[in-house]
Amino acid sequence: MRNLAIFLFSLLPAVAMADTLRMAVTTSFHNSGLSDILLPAVEEDTGITVQLLVVGTGQALRLGRAGDVDAVLVHARAAEEAFVGTGHATHRREIMYNDFVLIGPAEDPADIAGAESAADALRRIATSGAVFVSRGDESGTHQKELELWFAAGLAPDGFGPAYRSVGAGMGATLNTASGMNAYLLADRASWLNFGNKGDLALLYAGDPALFNQYAYLPVNPARHPHVPADLTERLENWLAGPRAKTLIDGYMLNGEPLFTHNARN
């Protein structure tokens, strides 16, 4: 019996490591490189192997509604609150934030570096005739872009062929803008981690409207009984905890922080 107990005890780490959770995350979160820092620590501390499905926010929430993932980590508050309000998630937990930035040709033909607000920057791009590349994929970044166009009093496709919608993730959109030497909206982390900047530069930032909050939403097991509620709770507690805070706040590129942890316990 003693030998059997020793044998079973020796299996405990392997059993813990077998705990798997599927989480849909935004391309901006993944492209930042932060997932490569967090996921090994999650597994080490909790025994949970997190399998990521990297998509835009809109698609992440659709996966959650279908029960194809156990949790989502996204950045579009209105859509997240609707997701909770319709019972697809049990709640919404804010985890971290960064900001959106406007990127464009270093020579800045639309002079957005001198803009008074993000909306003013977009008006300048539209009136200058310069090319603007949009993700066009219902992601959190795309939703923020549309919100800013609305604040500017403009329909983004109203200035003709200069508006290019690519229907792709953050990395592909940055590559397209680099190839076209065009303007675009990006999250700061993806921009800092982007290696194909070409002649692009960060031209405008700092408007409170560009605040970019990321939140964790566990899929509701009452809707999808296969969702491992114990694992989603364990992961949430870790993401809101001290080690996650240390790793998120300490994640830097060229000496610049990419995210700030702001989960409240």
Summarize the model shown.
This protein is α/β, with parallel strands linked by helices and 265 residues long. The protein has helices spanning 2-17, 27-31, 34-46, 57-66, 77-85, 118-128, 140-151, 170-180, 188-192, 229-239, 242-250, and strands at residues 19-26, 48-55, 71-74, 93-105, 132-134, 163-165, 184-187, 200-204, 211-218, 252-253, 256-257, 260-261. It has two domains: 2-97 and 213-261, D-Maltodextrin-Binding Protein, domain 2, CATH 3.40.190; 99-210, Periplasmic binding protein-like II (D-Maltodextrin-Binding Protein, domain 2), CATH 3.40.190.
What does this 3D model show about the protein?
The chain has 265 residues and is α/β, with parallel strands linked by helices. The chain has 2 domains: 2-97 and 213-261, D-Maltodextrin-Binding Protein, domain 2; 99-210, 3-Layer(aba) Sandwich (D-Maltodextrin-Binding Protein, domain 2). The chain is 42% helix and 23% strand. The protein has 11 helices and 12 strands. The chain has helices at 2-17, 27-31, 34-46, 57-66, 77-85, 118-128, 140-151, 170-180, 188-192, 229-239, 242-250; strands spanning 19-26, 48-55, 71-74, 93-105, 132-134, 163-165, 184-187, 200-204, 211-218, 252-253, 256-257, 260-261. Strands 1, 2, 3, 4, 7, 8, 9 and 12 form an 8-stranded mixed sheet that branches. A two-stranded parallel sheet has the order 5-6. Helix 7 links the parallel strand 5 and strand 6 (163-165). Helix 6 packs across helix 7. Mean pLDDT is 91; it is low at 1-17.
